[in-house]
Design goal:
InterPro entries: Citrate_synth-like_lrg_a-sub, Citrate_synth-like_sm_a-sub, Citrate_synthase, Citrate_synthase_AS, Citrate_synthase_bac-typ, Citrate_synthase_sf, Citrate_synthase_typ-I. The protein is mainly alpha-helical and 428 residues long. The chain is built from 18 helices and six strands. It has a three-stranded antiparallel sheet with strand order 1-2-3. Strands 4-5-6 form a three-stranded antiparallel sheet. Bound molecules: D-malate.
Length: 428
């Protein structure tokens, strides 16, 4: 007999079906709860609410497991490339040689953006945060491709938008940096692979020859793979929710970029580095900052520690920590911030205060150190996260569309005033 959940309300028993995922995680399907009982469920922050069924990413927070389409993150980070992982997430399978080559070629062909996009840059203040520019310009693609707002796009039309977005985001992302610096904007080079082209657009000058360092390319590939998807996190849920209204792919991803920018989400990597810099400026006494973090009367919080769904460790942090050591050694960089980071990590792993609260370093803790080592400025860290997360957002948007999910429309428990009569301004 199929499993069901009995709920007793006002002395009456109701039965609701239990649904089970491929990894045997179970959920009570309460879609008919209100119709049958008049009750809704409430779960602030969606700590216990499954918003969808998804076949993209599996995450076990207790065991520290993360898999994209069934493949362990450790294997993908070690053996794959960012474009291959993007294909895997978006199309559900590892590509053949021909499929990967075609995917890469298509993306390469679309790296240019409309010349009018360049002009939009002139309207932003030069000190604008790159995430503000990125989200605006990604949304502006809807204006350049107005047909993308149609709710009835064919598979080919959706694929074209996917390719355009994968291609153009790296040009736009690099240009946000160049614009910020007052440097000339570099056009993409179609003889380069995805990561090399991004580095070229970020760091080259028309006046000088730019050598692409393969170690930097490999570090970037790894970082982007580690960030490529993370099931129903805040920005991905935003992309799905906005997309569920039949909003365009560009508009939905732009909304996701804004969610990611928040310091409690992707903006944390920038905050981690700024925290490490503040500790260094203060003399580098990590114990003092650990004590501050433990002091209830001190508002200081250690950034990059703990995670909403990982209860023991973040598998990405393990990989990234090793990668940070490797990249710094390979590039011959000695970064005092890495030492501070290591001391903080040590404190967190041994101090009962942190252990009891399960505050161990997460993916944001070490990513900034690698980005810094490869020359990415701090305010671009969250842009790098967005670049990595893009295939995940696309895959989730596409899955939501293909599954014809209904528009997202949560309910609420109203706590405001009861009905009252309008008073004219003289009566108040
Ligand atoms: C992410 O990768 O999106 C972050 O770790 C946040 C999350 O999953 O909630």
């Amino acid at each position: 007999m199929a499993e069901s959940a009995e709920i007793i309300l006002d002395g009456k028993s109701y039965s609701f079906p239990v649904t089970e995922g491929s990894e045997h995680e179970k959920a009570i399907d309460i879609a008919k709860l209100r119709d049958q009982t008049g009750y809704i469920t409430i779960d602030s922050g969606y700590k216990n609410t499954g918003a969808t069924k998804s076949a993209i990413t599996f995450l076990d927070g207790e065991e520290g497991i993360l898999r994209y389409r069934g493949y362990p993150i450790e294997q993908l980070a070690e053996k794959s490339s960012f474009l291959e992982v993007s294909y895997l997430l978006i199309y559900g399978k590892l590509p053949t040689t021909a499929e990967l080559a075609n995917f890469g070629d298509q993306i390469t062909k679309h790296t240019l953006v409309h010349e009018d996009v360049r002009k939009i840059f002139d309207g932003f203040p030069s000190a604008a945060h790159p995430m503000a520019i990125l989200s605006s310009l990604i949304c502006s693609l809807t204006a350049f491709y107005p047909e993308s707002v149609s709710p009835d796009l064919s598979k080919e039309e959706i694929d074209l938008n996917v390719i355009r977005l994968m291609a153009k985001i790296s040009t736009i992302a690099a240009w946000t940096y160049k614009n910020n610096m007052g440097h000339p904007l570099n056009y993409p080079r179609n003889d380069l692979d995805y990561c090399s082209n991004f580095l070229y657009m970020m760091f080259s000058f028309p006046t000088e020859k730019y050598e692409i360092n393969p170690k930097v390319v490999s570090a970037l590939n790894k970082l982007l793979i580690l960030h490529a998807d993370h099931e129903q996190n805040c920005s991905t849920s935003t992309v799905r929710l906005v997309g569920s209204a039949n909003a365009s792919l560009y508009g939905s991803v732009s909304a996701g970029i804004n969610a990611l920018w928040g310091p409690l989400h992707g903006g944390a990597n920038q905050e981690v580095l700024e925290m490490l810099q503040a500790i260094q400026k203060d003399g580098g006494n990590t114990q003092k900052w650990v004590d501050k973090a433990k002091d209830k009367n001190d508002s200081f919080r250690l950034m990059g520690f703990g995670h909403r769904v990982y209860k023991n460790f973040d598998p990405r942090a393990k990989i990234i920590k090793k990668a940070a050591d490797e990249v710094l050694t390979a590039l011959g960089i000695e970064d005092p911030l890495l030492k501070i980071a290591q001391e903080l990590e040590q404190a967190a792993l041994t101090d009962p205060y942190f252990v009891e609260r399960k505050l161990y370093p997460n993916v944001d803790f070490y990513s900034g150190i690698i980005y810094r080592a490869i020359g990415i400025p701090t305010e671009m860290f969250t842009v790098m996260f967005a670049l990595g997360r893009l295939p995940g957002w696309i895959a989730q948007w596409k899955e939501m569309r293909e599954n014809k999910e209904p528009i997202g429309r949560p309910r609420q428990v109203y706590t405001g005033e009861l009905e009252r009569d309008y008073l004219s301004i003289e009566q108040r």
